Amino acid sequence: MTLRSILCAAVFSLTAAASAQAGSYTITHVTLIDGTGAAPKPDVTVQVEGERITLVTPSVAAGAPKGVVIDGRGKYLIPGMMDVHIHLRGWMPGRNADGSPVVDHKIAEQALASYIYDGFTTVVDVGNQPENSLYERAEERAGRIQSPRIFATGNLITYPGSHGDAMAVRISDFEKDKALLDKHIAEQQPDILKLTYDEEGWGTRPMITLMPTELLHQIIEYYNLHGIRTTVHISNEKRAIEAIYAGTDTLAHPVIQGPVSDSFVRLMAAKKTPFATTLTIGENYGRLADHPEFLDQPDYVASFSAAELETLKTETRAEYQKRAWTQWMKVMTPICLENVRKVVAAGGVAALGTDQSSGPAAHRELELLVQAGIPNLQAIRIATLNGAVFLGKAEDMGSVQEGKLADLVLLNADPIADIDATKNIALVMKAGQIIDESRLPLAGGVQKKRWPAG
Ligand SMILES: [Zn+2]
Questions:
Q1: pTM value?
Q2: Cα–ligand 1 centroid distance for 56 (angstroms)
Q3: How remote is the C-alpha of 121 from its chain's centroid?
Q4: Which of 454, 410, 420, 429 has the alpha carbon at shortest distance from 76?
């Protein structure tokens, strides 16, 4: 038995007796990487009561432990990780007879399971069929599914003919279409608004219609007046700057269309507008075309069914090998990595985002951040506290600090020595409850021996 399974067995008999109430836990003698970017602290004791962290202290100063004791010796504690740019799987091509989108809750819940299995306790869906993302958000908030916390935009909003308009509420005039915005706010209760502002799509596509800048400003202001933060899809530097001065709270991507200028780097460091990193989505084309063996890694085998993996390795791979898009992304990915590194090094605020829909993709994003030259400690902050900053919820989550939600990941190895240690998980805790991996609806099934047992 692994430590993880032993702990889960012990803990779940306790919580079952306490009728699913979160209990108390004390993690002792652990090396803490708290998510703020502070240096790792050895021999720390972290106490969790109910859904919150109630004590973080050097172990020598800790009193008697409360509740279940988790021996953290030789282990590393990080905050639950966050992916702030996903599009949850589960919506399918076509329409039902009544015109509603076709959704498959099982596929969505498998994707969510893969995130929490991989240590991601929060995801932000930034554009989806509301019948998919908002349904799962309600399920998660009611405690009916094992899932990361879900924050969601519902439908994104754009101008007719603009990027992403197939799944958007289309607004052509602020005054004339205000009722559509009111309906979106009332019916979908977006946690954050997503807009698109991009005439280029990504790369090799023909130019498309751009939302007028004044309209972008009006919509951002309107949502802010309703207490809702905003994120804007951009891909080039010019539109990124315009979106910031139109008032956006965050950007949904880094600059991808070319190398960033020094003045853009300075602006991002001065404004500290959080942006989602989204390196994985572009890199994935060349990776699958040239190195399909990555799909044999244990977290992919857990997260995808054998049939899906086979399709990826054959049909999808063949298609990617033929596409000009793949070549374009091979050229642009190193440029994008360097853009992200420069902005981070100057003091800009990156938050981990994949533009995908699985735990393994989110781990790939961490690998790419490190490949870009970002130190591991900072990459962990990008994957944790900065996600909370992106959401405007940094006082409540994102780091291991007293008073915050107890979203925690205990690792068997040191992620400062090797970022892949973030996959070597002993246990995942969300809101003070340990996730029982045996109950997760993973498409490929739990891989007991995915990493050397702790
Ligand atoms: Zn996206």
A1: 0.93
A2: 36
A3: 9
A4: 410
